[in-house]
Predict the 3D structure of the following.
Amino acid sequence: MLIRQFLEGEDYAVVEAKDGHEALEKLAEQPFDLVILDIAMPGIDGPSVCEHVRSSMTDPPPVLMVTALDDEQSVERSYSAGAVDYIRKPLRWPVLKNRIRYILGAHRARQELELLSRNYEMILDSAANGICGVDDKGKVSYINPAALKMLGCGIREVRGHEYWEVFKISLPGSEDFSEDCCPYFTQPDNKTTIYFDEARMLRKDGTSFPVDFRSTPIRQGHRLIGGVLVFVDVTERQEAAELIRYMANHDPLTNLPNRNYFRRRLPQAISLARRYSRILCLLFIDLDRFKPINDQFGHGVGDIVLMQVAERLRRVLRTSDSVCRLGGDEFVILLESTEAIDGAVLVAQKVIESLNEPIEAGDHVCFIGASIGVSVFPFDCQDAETMLRHADIAMYEAKKKGRNCWQLYTE
């Protein structure tokens, strides 16, 4: 009665139960901020009620024990049951008031911290990046669903395991998946974030994927207390970059390398030919009678003809040689493994014969030919620009000769 009067005088709302059974019933009916129990009660004693409260409720209120007993066993039993504190009779009201204020404040702070922690965990769980927390022993303490999906693992296969068992990383250009992603555990002076860009990481099934990986040590003062690992699968980014590179260097209609690619490739080929004292042959091909096809049948038919031409040029060449479309109806062939000019002449003749065959384009049968100019390094040129210009000049000489033929460049 005295406790109730005192608490109501402090503006607390108080609900009283005559014994342990009634206390459990009232606790099931509504939430409470604090439960005050006597250790010695009829029916169910205080520690038993406390233990039931702590075990049966998802967010149990704190329990304060009041006792006239002076034995250590009762006090120990109360704490073991889950009580946060106890106070002896006869009660000292200022002590009780401040004890309750402290317990309620600590409980609210813990609830707010747990709520904040749950919110943070929900954010981390919904993140697209893989996120992992490592404790001071180097063991995984947290990992989000995105990380588990990337690794192809279940939570039990990861949590509690050493980080080096879970994260097997290789640096770009290496197939050794033994890179230490948390070196700060073995290197005390390492206090900064470690970056692994364009690395590869192993999945559980043994396959690997490209990843950008960040590993940051967590310190409390001068003491290392863990680390945070953040990583992202960059497969799509690499594929997009590769597609952009491909599109920048290839003709979209024929899928042949384009002028941009050829402008870079020709100087490299000349440099190699000079280094190994080899000849290099360039065939400049301009289609004959192509413009009338576009004018008469339309660009759709013209595009089919260009695709058929590209395919025929591919079939004529060896794997060591290359063909590019410069644009329009102009193509070039680069012969890098020919030992004599006769080899270039033979390829030019094969190209003319191949392109003399009729081309079926939808409902139309088209007849074209080709005029080809041939330039040879180092006999008539010493650099890429001159080589292309000489092959172009020779091609126009072939057209002057009546088309559908080839011409070597000469002074």
Q: What stands out?
A: The mean pLDDT is 91. The chain is about 40% helix and 25% strand. Residues 130 and 290 are 56 Å apart (CA to CA). The two ends are 122 Å apart (CA to CA).
